[in-house]
Amino acid sequence: MNNRISTSMMYQQSVSTLLGKQAKLAHTQQQLSSGQRLVTAKDDPVAAGTAVGLDRSLAQLERFGANANGVQNRLGLQENALTSVGSAMARIHELTLQANNSAYGDDSRQAISTELKAIKAGLLDLANSTDGSGRYLFGGTSDGSAPFALSGGGVVYSGDQTQRQVEVAPDMFVSDTLPGSEVFLRMATGDGRVDGHADAANTGTGLLMDFAATDTGAWNGQRYQIAFTAADSYEIRDAANTIVATGSYTAGDGISIGGLQLTLQGQPAAGDRFEIGPAGTRDIFSTVQNLIDTLASNPTTDAQRTAMQNSLQSALRDIGTAQEKMIDARASGGAQLAAIDTAASLREANSVTLKGTLSSLRDLDWAEAIGRYNLENTSLQAAQTIFMQMQSMSLFKMMG
């Protein structure tokens, strides 16, 4: 085997060495100028791949933050709207108490009715509140158009009953604003569990003062009717119109049946009826409209005045239950806002951890890089000196 040494081979080796050292020095200069250890993925393929995954996790945290900001804005606006609704309900309650005062005449009740109409219109506007971007707060997921509208003297709901869930941190979701069906439509009547009312056709002066479930274990959810057969006697019928009990009436004494009890004052007439049973639901707009209609009756007889008073008492109970529903709705929104704050803390903690890991993968160790730069620069200068010497050398000179 023959090994040949030529001037061109020595020259090429020197050039190759010189270029390699220049490339290393240029790479180190890039690291120093950028402050990054990973200039390209080939510097450390494993670390570069891990860093890309961490970048995606950070981007996801930013997206969760944007989600949280959006739903926080909507929940804050919902809180404002529900606060206004609560204030309106408190005013309705106050006006109903005033209307129930026997000293108020027809003109005073008409003035109250006028204010109630304005409050009802305001409630409709609040139910159609938007989040500032054209989306309606109380439309559920069908929030592209106004969820409530007047129709046939009543108010109809065109939204859906879905409450959107929004991810605000990894595997942490909060609920968006409540659908309008839960806030404005499904208002329980009575005390929320039991409801009682006087028949609109009653001709006596029997006034329903109170009702309650006195023995929840004995009550099976049955509805009962107390029908007066005479001014001082009554019979109780169940939902199938079967007589289940009879009794004598004394004003102020409780009438009990199946775990329920109601108390009457005044003097019912034969044929008068009162009902007690499970509470139903009614939308808030119907409750206010019924109150407006009641105030428009202008009673002239004792029986008519009693009928109005029974209606006003019923309205007071329904409004009181509606106020509790608004408090519950606000509490629900408040819980979601608290969860958003918790999610923000979690995102911040995760972000700090991820950025710390990224820093350990990407950021340059300045002391090591500067030392390496000095070493590589010295090495390059030495290679350049050798190359200059190689240029002046030749095998022909050595053979001379």
Describe the 3D structure.
It contains eight helices and 14 strands. With about 400 residues, it is α+β, with helices and mostly antiparallel strands. The protein has two domains: about 260 residues, f41 fragment of flagellin, N-terminal domain, CATH 1.20.1330; about 80 residues, no CATH class. The strands form five sheets. It has a five-stranded antiparallel sheet. A hairpin with a 2-residue loop joins strand 11 and strand 12.
Keywords for this entry:
400 residues, f41 fragment of flagellin, N-terminal domain, 14 strands, 54% helix, cilium, Flagellin_N
Helix coverage percent? 40-55%
Radius of gyration: 41 Å
**Which CATH first-tier class of the largest domain would you pick?**
Mainly Alpha
Biggest sheet: strands, sense, closure?
Answer: 5 strands, antiparallel
Q: List segments where confidence is low: pLDDT < 50 over at least 5 consecutive residues.
A: none
Mean of all residue-level pLDDT scores: 85
Proportion of residues in β-strands: 15-25%
| CA distance, first residue to last residue | 27 Å
Number of helices: 8
Instruction: Using the alpha-carbon principal axes, give the shape.
Output: rod-shaped
Number of strands: 14
Which helices and strands appear, and what pairs or packs with what?
Layout: H1 7-34, H2 45-99, H3 106-127, E1 148-151, E2 154-157, E3 165-169, E4 172-175, H4 180-185, E5 187-188, E6 194-198, E7 207-213, E8 224-230, E9 233-237, E10 243-248, E11 254-257, E12 260-265, E13 273-278, E14 281-282, H5 284-295, H6 302-362, H7 366-391, H8 395-399
Antiparallel strand pairs: 1-2, 3-4, 5-14, 6-13, 7-12, 8-9, 8-13, 9-10, 11-12
Family: Belongs to the bacterial flagellin family.
Protein name: Flagellar hook protein FlgL
Organism: Pseudoxanthomonas dokdonensis
